[in-house]
Every structure is written in structure tokens, then in C-alpha cells.
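Kindly inspect this today.
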Amino acid sequence: MFVSHPWLRFVEGVDGGAATAPEPTDAPADSAGDTQEEGAGDEVDYKAKYEAMKKHSREWEAKAKANKKAADRLKEIEDADKSEAERLTEQLAASEKDNAVLRAELNRMTIAAKHGLSAEDAELFLHGDTEAMEAQAQALAGRRVKVGGAEAPAQGRGSASGSVEAARQWAKKLTEQH
């Protein structure tokens, strides 16, 4: 009834009593001599199993290919049965979908250019309808760091002559901006 495994340790016995050691099963011993003599008949032919599974797999592949051909043929028959109006309706729906995607992309790029955003920033951050993209672009443009502005007046010059006057002009320029 119960199969015991020698690597398992039981905490409670069968009848709820104390733990008992598992009883040995009729499994062959692990000694090398027994395995060689008796194990030869018990060995599994894995190559034969592999070949059988491979054959089974090939059968299902052939069935799948036949089903694909049948599905393609059914699609052709259904398309032939459709009227010209139905085909044109399907083409129109596909064209309208493509048109909506292109219009959204055009709106995104127009708003990005209006606010001075790069195409990468527009692709990452601008999504939704036109009003939402406009608000997102304004917020993103407001966070952009302005390049330029304050710079050292004598930067790149080799001499220090006239640096006091240049520093005064630079300070005056900075205070006038704000």
C-alpha cells in the first residue's frame, strides 16, 4: 500500500504512533556486481524512445502543415465569396486606422517643434489627445535647462589685462538680465 523511500524520514508512524524506520523495498541493491548482472535486462533504450518521440513529433508537424494549407484555402474561398463592397470596406477601415496613427504622430511632432523638444523626447513623453500632449510639452519645456547665459569674461584669453573692467561689465550684464 505505501511505498517507502529510504531517503525520507517519517515523523509519525502509520497508526499515529512513534516514528519507525522505513522498511526496505524489493529494489535491487546498489552494489556494482548486482547492477551489471541484473541491470542489463532492466535498462531503458533511450535511443529508441527518442526515435519514437521524434516520429510522433514529425506526424504532428505534418498534420499542422495540412491544417495550415486547409485554413489558407478556406480564407481564399471566403475572400472569393465576399462582394467587392465588403473588400473595399475592409480596405477603408485599414486605411482609416493608418490615417489616425499618422495624424497622432503629426500632432506629436508639431507640438514638440512648437515647444523646442527633440523627436526622442516627443516619442517618450508626449501621449494622449492633443490637449494632453500640449500640457505635457509645456511642462517638459519648462524643465529644460537653458544653455548659455553667464560665462567668464576672460575665458579663453591668455592675458589678464583689463580683467577688472571686463568683470564689472560681466556683473552688470548679469544683474540686468533679472
About this structure: Residues 95-143 form one domain. Confidence is low (pLDDT under 50) at residues 31-39. The chain has six helices and no strands. The helical segments are 32-42, 46-81, 84-114, 119-125, 130-143, 163-177.
